[in-house]
Write a structure and sequence with these properties.
32 strands, elongated, 53% helix
Length: 1023
């Protein structure tokens, strides 16, 4: 059965199936989860180890190295990197892409569990699998001038968090800041010593009366009862009446020797919102959660919750707004582009019903594409939404070429009966052109790394849209055209008429065919311009997007007291408030959004800008950095937009420039790092240069003398435990209060403000009962903060980092490498390797170049199958490849970086350009069977001039809103759109002028019909 009779016979069934698919797609689209990023299983697991407060060097030997050895042996581990500080370490374990990260995380946990017995006593660990949900999707701050911080924390943890737990898609609700209320038993250790008591005696007494235990069952007649022995405390007064000692000299109660009252647990973390103390409520989503729906439910739930007193609930971060804004930008871009494409159709074909057919088909294709995404379990995110927006221009191309061909045949007097035959006639070039575009996405889907994972979502989306577009163009568009267009009243406006465009094109092409080699020479300036642009265009990794907010990391000198850090941060608070674009900000001291190793002298801000901010986010960041450096000496700041910061945390490469230094003697690394940092800081375009030396705060080293300890009849563990109890305290029991259990902490009076002299005089009670000062068995020395110790694949390493300002990533890295490769820049025995986002960029660029070559080969094979001619296939592919030179020129002119989305766009240009060329070559081969070659070239170029012009204009206008990055979050697809537009613009000229000239130079074609050029051109002009 022929195509024509098949479609004609089953026309109603085809339309019914199409309508059902569109309806199903619309329904599925409403339920597809919406998130910022694709559901990417990042191959990274982070291990946080804690082992008291031992020195950093000892932490590496006793904790980090054994853990690294165990983790390195796990199958599939590619790299292990660690940072060790005083008593704590963070190890990053990188696996290969494509691995089952749930299973890999369990392997990490199992390896650490097996190693734990060999680590120092008291060592604990936490394993975290990194994914895009590591940062909250929505965060609130609770602040008040009347309600205490402990009450605010209870309100967040005991009221708001349980309310939110029932919302589908939420993984956890975390509370940061505030004070944790507890009951404190504080005693003067000197007074206790005079009474023959110690803090351990108080802790033992409290623990003994806070016990509840089932001791058995008794059967009395017909009843069986559980016997419970209990001395558990219920009230504060009962705690005060606890007996510490009883004897012939009387009873000593807890309240008589210690102060018992409410207090707050030791806390070295401060949290603020807009400069005021606050409690933060962070909501995290499940990997497959719908960010927009979750955020809406969170807003509704918290909006209905009662707030006591003057408590304010302030939203300081809402990721769903960026997602929603990106959605709106893509939606608006598609609507504007579709409208402009409709105007192109109307301008050329002068029929409103043809425009209506296009306006019906394009949204239908998008709806069915959404159905495919839903069935594949994908989400709407920045990549899939961008893929849909970019695909609209290609979908409208399919509609235009089919409608134009139908108009040329049926609109030239044939009528509705010629619609299906015209479609059948055009089916072969339509199939070839669609395959030429789709085949490009096959190698893209095999790209590795974070680039491959992100581009895979884009590739699947666009390939799905193009396949569906082809089916609609072949089967639905003809039926709609036959049904809606009245061919009895409408005639093709281009039939039998010449336009200024066709006449101009005929004259230029005729002149070019007379000297085809000169036409080829005319391409050389374009190639030279592209080559110059390649050397000038800045390069980057991910596209720059104005997110309307940024993360500001800060660090004060090591050892700075929390109060002094807060004083400096109040200055930074005032600086931020003075920026007119800043709406609000939150601050964390001693911790951070990304789970860094916490020290009281560093933390981060999240700064949220007003929706209508005048300056760009990058400009505000630069202004804040400059003023902070000038006005707050001693305070170091780093800034990054959240998306960049998040991807950096997920891939363990948060800085654009990272110089990893290694040496045979690790002791030389700190000095070498400072020297390299000075070299890097002197280079233009590099800011926030850090030498990678991150000392912890100052400390007091209590060195126990084993001989003296033994002479006092105590053990070193006894002395250490007494110190820990006096300074930190010991939680001896838990007391019920206000629906929860409060810790009961026994500690020394004034422990938090204990001086060097007070520590030396601290009394230690021996098991025999005698008391002696700490200074009798130990010497106390003040030590400066030890730096964190970094290791990379089991080698000591220090990383010097920098961020960019006004310079591309590639140029900046090249200048760094040139400076470090200069003679004498590095000391003997020291070597370096480039890391950071630059390393990721180079891996991504290498992968994309391989994809580009694979796409080139795939197109060549397709064309050879289509035309059965190696020369024809080579000509089409080479001409298509030449159009990619315009990508570099356009990026250079617009000042947009060459990044992974621009390279993806450049790869797609090969397929799109080949699609254009196929239409002309197929027409040429058809005509060459019944007329001389040169006349066939002129006829083919003339016949394809209008559809190629229409499709090029429609695609460019459709992508133009994306290229202009209209709206917040729209910049993610800007490089892609600019690349495709530039490639299309150059390919328009190459296909209509250069390709015909090259076809005439092919073996067997150039000699055929040399004398027919003028005749063919004249005949065409007369028509």
């Amino acid at each position: 059965m022929s195509f024509t009779s098949l479609v004609d016979r089953h026309a109603k069934a085809i339309m019914a199936i199409a309508a059902a698919l569109v309806l199903a797609g619309a329904v599925i689209a409403a339920g597809i989860p919406v998130s910022l990023f694709p559901q990417v299983p990042f191959p990274r697991v982070v291990v946080d180890l804690s082992s008291g407060d031992r020195p950093a060097a000892q932490t590496v030997l006793a904790v980090t190295k054994p853990a690294e050895d165990a983790l390195r042996a796990i199958p599939g581990v590619h790299a292990v990197r660690s940072n060790s500080s005083r008593g704590s370490a963070q190890i990053s374990v990188d696996f290969g892409w494509g691995r089952d990260m749930v299973a890999s995380t369990l392997l990490v946990d199992a390896a650490l569990a097996q190693t734990l017995p060999s680590l120092p006593a008291g060592t604990g660990y936490e394993v975290r699998r990194m994914d895009p949900t590591v940062f909250p999707i929505i965060s609130y701050a609770l602040s008040s001038s009347q309600v205490s911080q402990s009450r605010l924390r209870d309100l967040a943890a005991l009221d708001f968090a349980p309310r939110l737990a029932s919302i589908a898609g939420i993984s956890r609700v975390a509370v940061q800041g505030g004070e944790v209320q507890e009951i404190q038993v504080e005693a003067d250790v000197h007074r206790l010593a005079g009474m023959g008591l110690s803090l351990d005696d108080l802790a033992t007494a409290v623990a003994s009366v806070a016990d509840i235990k089932a001791v058995g069952r008794v059967q009395d007649r017909s009843r069986l009862s559980l016997v419970i022995a209990r001395t558990d405390l219920q009230t504060m007064e009962q705690l005060r009446q606890t007996v510490v000692r009883a004897g012939s000299d009387g009873v000593v109660r807890l309240g008589a020797v210690a102060h018992v009252g409410y207090g707050h647990a030791p806390n070295w973390i401060n949290v603020a919102e807009d400069g005021h103390p606050a409690v933060l409520l962070n909501v995290y989503q499940q990997p497959d959660g719908n960010a927009v729906a979750i955020a809406a439910q969170v807003r509704d739930t918290l909006g209905a919750a009662p707030l006591p007193g003057d408590v304010k609930l302030i939203s300081w971060y809402d990721q769903s707004q960026l997602v929603s804004d990106s959605q709106a930008s893509v939606r608006d871009a598609m609507a504007i582009g579709l409208l402009l494409a409709g105007l192109v159709l109307f301008a050329f074909l002068r029929n409103l019903r043809i425009v209506i057919v296009a306006l019906i088909v394009v949204p239908s294709v998008i709806a069915v594409t959404a159905l495919v995404l839903g069935l594949l379990g994908m989400t709407f995110n920045i990549m899939t939404l961008g893929g849909i927006a970019a695909a609209v221009g290609l979908v409208i191309d399919d509609v235009i070429v089919v409608v134009e061909h139908i108009a040329r045949r049926a609109g030239a007097g044939g009528g509705a009966k010629d619609v299906l035959p015209a479609t059948r006639e055009f089916l072969r070039p339509l199939t070839g052109s669609s395959l030429a575009t789709i085949v490009v996405f096959v190698p893209l889907s095999f790209l590795g790394g974070v680039t491959g994972e992100f581009s895979r979502a884009l590739s699947i989306t666009m390939a799905s849209a193009l396949v569906i577009s082809y089916l609609f163009a072949a089967f639905v568009v003809p039926l709609l055209a036959r049904r809606f267009i009245d061919f009895g009243r409408w005639q093709d406006p281009g039939h039998g008429r010449s336009t200024w465009l066709s006449r101009t094109h005929a004259r230029v092409l005729t002149a070019g065919l007379q000297r085809p080699r000169r036409v080829l020479l005319g391409v050389i300036p374009l190639l030279v311009l592209g080559a110059v642009a390649w050397t000038q265009v800045p390069s980057g990794f991910m596209p720059k997007v104005d997110e309307g907010g940024f993360v500001l990391d800060f660090r004060t000198p090591p050892g700075t007291a929390l109060t002094e850090t807060e004083r400096q941060l109040h200055q930074l608070d005032a600086l931020l408030r003075s920026q007119p674009e800043v709406e609000t900000f939150s601050r964390r001291t001693g911790t951070g959004l990304g789970g860094d190793l916490g020290e009281p002298h560093h933390g981060d801000y999240f700064v949220r800008l007003r929706t209508d901010h005048q300056r760009s986010t990058e400009a505000v960041m630069a202004a804040v950095r400059a003023r902070a450096a000038a006005e707050i000496p001693g305070l170091e700041v780093e800034s990054a937009q959240l998306m960049e910061d998040l991807i950096g945390d997920l891939t363990a490469v948060p800085q654009p420039i990272e110089v990893k230094l290694y040496a045979q003697d690790p002791a030389v690394l700190p000095a070498e790092a400072k020297k390299v940092a000075d070299i890097v800081a002197a280079l233009p375009g590099l800011v926030e240069v850090k030498d990678g030396i991150n000392p912890a705060g100052d400390g007091l080293d209590v060195q126990l003398d084993p001989v003296r300890v033994a002479m006092e009849s105590v053990s070193p563990a006894d002395v250490t435990r007494a110190l820990d109890t006096a300074i930190t305290g010991v939680v001896a029991a838990r007391l019920p209060a206000r629906g929860t259990l409060l810790d009961v902490r026994v500690r020394s009076v004034g422990a938090a403000t204990l001086t060097h002299e007070g520590l030396a005089a601290l009394p230690i009670r021996a098991p025999g009962g005698h008391v002696f000062p700490l200074s009798r068995v130990a010497s106390i020395h003040a030590v400066s903060g030890e730096p964190e110790i970094g290791r990379d694949d089991l080698q000591p390493m220090i990383a010097v980092t920098a961020r960019l300002e006004g310079q591309g990533l590639g140029a900046a890295a090249a200048s760094v490498k040139a400076a470090l490769d200069a003679p004498g820049a590095l000391s003997p025995g020291v070597r370096y390797a480039m890391g950071g986002l630059y390393e990721q960029q180079q891996q991504a660029f290498l992968g994309l170049i391989e994809v580009f070559v694979a796409a080139f080969i795939a197109e060549l094979i397709l064309l050879m199958l289509l035309y059965e001619s190696v020369w024809t296939a080579l000509v089409v592919v080479v001409v298509s490849a030449l159009s990619t030179t315009a990508v570099f020129t356009a990026l250079w002119i617009t000042g947009v970086e060459l990044n992974i989305t621009a390279l993806m766009g450049m790869t797609m240009v090969v397929g799109i350009s080949t699609e254009m060329a196929i239409f002309l070559v197929s027409e040429y081969q058809l005509l060459a069977t019944r007329m001389p070659a040169r006349q066939a070239v002129l006829e083919a170029a003339g016949n394809r001039l209008r559809p190629i012009t229409m499709t090029t204009l429609a695609a460019i206008l459709t992508l133009l809103p994306l290229a202009m990055a209209l709206g917040r979050g729209a910049g993610i697809q800007q490089p892609l759109a600019i690349s495709i537009i530039a490639g299309l613009a150059l390919q328009y000229v190459l296909v209509l002028l250069v390709l015909p000239a090259v076809l005439m130079l092919l073996p067997g074609d150039a000699a055929r019909g040399r004398r027919e050029v003028h005749a063919g051109a004249g005949a065409r002009l007369r028509r």
